[in-house]
Design goal:
The protein is an alpha/beta fold. It has 2 domains: about 200 residues, 2-Layer Sandwich (Endonuclease, Chain A); about 210 residues, Endonuclease, Chain A (2-Layer Sandwich), CATH 3.30.870.10. About 35% of the residues lie in helices and about 20% in strands. The strands form 3 sheets. Strands 1, 6, 12, 13, 14, 15, 17, 18, 19 and 20 form a 10-stranded mixed β-sheet that branches. An 8-stranded mixed β-sheet has the order 2-10-8-7-3-4-5-11, sandwiched between helices. Strands 9-16 form a two-stranded parallel ribbon. Helix 1 crosses helix 7 and helix 2 runs parallel beside helix 3.
Length: about 450
């Protein structure tokens, strides 16, 4: 689609008009934690927490205890927690056999009564091929949107954190829309079951229901029935998608293609899908400035320090860096000319999990989508697209970027990144073995 046609198309999407001051940006995991817990404490109508997981750890217990207190003190509250079915029933990667968070959910219900339903949503018959990656905490008429899940590092417990983006949107229509999709089109499905009750069904007995559920999700859309944004008004459009060439994927590509001056892209795992890489290449040929902010390999949540025993999963951050180095080498002229700017985030031993896109101070996309092949093909994803014709979010967006850049270093040429010969021996051997049998190409598609 020619550039001249893209912006009218984007601007014609159904959208909810937002009042001045309806959007607030938070800048730290600690602020996110305190804001979420306070919203739960003061909720009067509904609480719907949607995340990949709610973890059995100290910060997870804070959230669960707050939910239990709210349910006990205000029995009329409509409360639900929605997590990925598969992720809830396994332990941490590399930690050996564990029962997973579902065992904790059941114990909490046994002790307190089943006042806080925890629903498991299977986006696919196996976790490897797709998970629930929807984001959004709907509390009364507010949406707290972040790519974060709910555990110690995402909630900044005792100083260590996994850095994400955090936005609060006060709008009843948007909250109703997002709440309606979850409660009307997800929780009522035969594939979706509670994990806080004894004896949940085994996944193998639900294969038919899960396949039918996923097939239905490919056609699922948010209900924009009450969306009535006025021309020139700050507005927001919720988007959802699963599977190849879904509406969210198409919108991401159209957004990038519509840029006239500058694009800022955040992604934690540098592994762009081919359509995104293609659009970035076109932007650079058109003279658009492109900023890409990605975590240093040591800020990747899969990174294993050399002082600890090596596991195969620890090769992933190095694979992403190899990808980044190839990208930098391919576009080195744009790097040298400062048209392409690559920023590596690193702060002590914390990790990086930012996602999203900013276009020309006019569009902002906040999302849990990692902008990688897995997100574009396998996981159930969503996003919020803000249209900001009068620049009402520009100051907040710049403050957020300044906060991110505080811990970034700039890559000025491909040689600024380590090559494979600098990697630990165990990593070199594994990557060499993967490359010989071309398994690395498969890994880039599913991780």
């Amino acid at each position: 689609m020619p550039l001249i046609q893209l912006r009218p198309h984007i601007d014609q999407l159904p959208a909810f008009g937002l009042k001045k001051g309806a959007v607030t940006t938070l800048f730290s995991a600690e602020d996110f934690r305190t804001t979420l817990l306070e919203a739960i404490r003061t909720a009067r109508k509904r609480i719907c927490l949607v995340a990949l997981y709610l973890q059995d750890d100290e910060a997870g217990h804070l959230v669960m205890n707050a939910l239990q207190d709210a349910a006990r003190e205000r029995p009329g509250l409509d409360i639900c927690v929605v997590v990925d079915w598969h992720r809830a029933q396994r332990g941490l990667i590399g930690a050996g056999h564990q029962e997973g968070n579902a065992a904790w959910y059941r114990e909490v219900s046994r002790q307190n009564g089943a006042r806080v339903p925890v629903w498991g949503v299977p986006a696919q018959t196996r976790e490897l091929f797709g998970v629930l990656h929807l984001k959004g905490f709907i509390i009364d008429d507010q949406v707290i949107y972040s790519g974060a899940s709910l555990n110690n590092v995402y909630l900044g417990w005792q100083g260590r954190y996994r850095f994400d983006r955090y936005h609060l949107i006060d709008d009843a229509a948007l909250a109703d829309c997002m709440y309606g999709l979850v409660t009307q089109h997800v929780l009522g499905n035969p594939a979706v079951h509670r994990l806080d009750l004894p004896n949940p069904p085994q996944t193998r007995t639900l294969r038919r229901e899960i396949k039918e559920f996923r097939a239905g999700l490919t056609h699922q859309r948010y209900d924009y029935g009450s969306a009535m944004a006025l021309p020139g008004e700050l507005s927001v459009t919720p988007l959802i998608g699963v599977g190849k060439n879904n509406p969210l994927n198409r919108q991401v590509c159209q957004l990038i293609a519509s840029a006239k001056q500058r694009v800022v892209i955040c992604t934690p795992y540098f592994n762009f899908p081919r359509p995104v890489s293609r659009e970035i290449g076109r932007l650079l040929r058109r003279g658009v400035t492109v900023d890409i902010i990605v975590g240093d390999k040591t800020a990747n949540d899969f990174f294993i320090p050399e002082s600890e025993p090596f596991k195969a999963i620890g090769a992933l951050p190095y694979l992403y860096e190899i990808n980044l180095r190839r990208f930098a080498k391919r576009h080195e002229k744009a790097l040298i000319n400062d048209q392409l700017r690559l920023h590596l985030w690193k702060h002590e031993d914390n990790s990086y999990h930012l996602k999203g896109i900013l276009i020309d101070d006019h569009y902002t996309l906040i999302t849990g989508n990692n902008l990688n092949p897995r997100a574009f093909r396998l996981d159930l994803e969503n996003a919020l697209l803000f249209r900001d014709p009068n620049g009402e979010l520009v100051e907040q967006n710049q403050a957020e970027l300044d906060n991110i850049f505080r811990h970034c270093r700039k890559v000025t040429r491909a040689g600024d990144l380590e090559s494979i010969r600098h990697y630990p021996e165990a990593v070199r051997k594994l990557i060499s073995r993967l490359s010989r049998v071309r398994v690395d190409r498969l890994l880039y598609r599913i991780l």
